[in-house]
Design brief:
This protein is α+β, with helices and mostly antiparallel strands and 224 residues long. It has a single domain, classed as Cyclophilin-like (Cyclophilin), CATH 2.40.100.10. Helices cover 33% and strands 23% of the residues. It is built from seven helices and ten strands. The strands form two sheets. The protein has an eight-stranded antiparallel β-barrel with strand order 1-2-7-5-6-4-3-10. Strands 8-9 form a two-stranded antiparallel sheet. It is globular and about 45 Å long. The relative contact order is 0.25. Its EC number is 5.2.1.8. This is peptidylprolyl isomerase. InterPro entries: Cyclophilin-like_dom_sf, Cyclophilin-type_PPIase_dom, Cyclophilin_A-like. One of its GO terms (molecular function) is peptidyl-prolyl cis-trans isomerase activity. It is an enzyme of class 5 (isomerase).
Length: 224
């Protein structure tokens, strides 16, 4: 089963990988998670890398964990909103890069945001999708409700792997977990109180070196 799931991830994601693709390690106190950043969302990719370089994701926390939905990390909404009140002249949001082919499958990396008409993202809040397996009936209902379309491949992944398809078209997806999914799953299952982990889940985000990244590029080229 693990091999089947990995094959589904690889065949869908291989199209996006090139020699410049960036990879990031989330070094957590639960283990390591490797993220691939999509070149199809260059502004979010570059902003995430910039925030990592500036230390925004050093000793950061997964601060909102909802089982079978998402694990959110980085700055809290209240922290962001309070800063914006104190400094109203500063740039508040980051323009959305919502692409139909980049969807909320299990393991997707998304940019957090508040409720705003532009669907613009926060600068320093991310989430990893956990989600649930979907049925064709559920996906059909979402298509009708939201006026979106799921491709045959997206349907296959949502049915076999799971995700949060109701977020599609509303939040920017700019990467995905390609290694350490078991760690992401473990984080999504930690005990919580009001969605906050009872025991802190701490992580550092680190950009992989060219040598380290080559391992994952080669994995996509070979199909495993």
């Amino acid at each position: 089963m693990k091999r089947i799931l990995l094959t589904l991830f690889l065949t869908v994601s291989a199209f996006w990988v090139n020699a410049q693709t960036s990879f990031v390690r989330l070094k957590t106190n639960k283990g390591n998670i490797i993220l691939m950043l999509y070149d199809q969302t260059p502004k979010h990719r570059d902003m995430f890398l910039k925030m990592i370089a500036e230390g925004a994701y050093k000793e950061a926390l997964f601060n909102r964990v909802i089982k079978a939905f998402v694990s959110q990390a980085g700055e809290l909404d209240d922290t962001i909103l309070n800063r914006e009140k104190a400094h109203p002249e500063s740039l508040k949001r980051f323009a959305a890069e919502i692409k139909p082919g980049l969807f909320h499958k299990k393991g997707a990396l998304g940019a957090g945001r508040d409720d705003n008409p532009e669907k613009a993202s926060y600068f320093s809040q991310i989430y990893l999708v956990a989600g649930k397996k979907q049925t064709d009936a559920q996906l059909d209902a979402l298509e009708q409700k939201k006026g979106i379309h799921f491709t045959a491949r997206q349907r296959e992944i949502y049915k076999k792997i799971g995700g949060t398809p109701h977020l599609d078209g509303d939040y920017t997806v700019f990467g995905e977990v390609i290694d350490g999914m078991e760690v992401a799953d473990a984080i999504n299952q930690v005990p919580t109180q009001n969605d906050l982990p009872v025991s802190p889940v701490v992580f550092d985000a680190q950009v992989l070196s060219k040598k380290e990244a080559s391992k994952y590029r080669n994995m996509y080229k070979t199909g495993l």
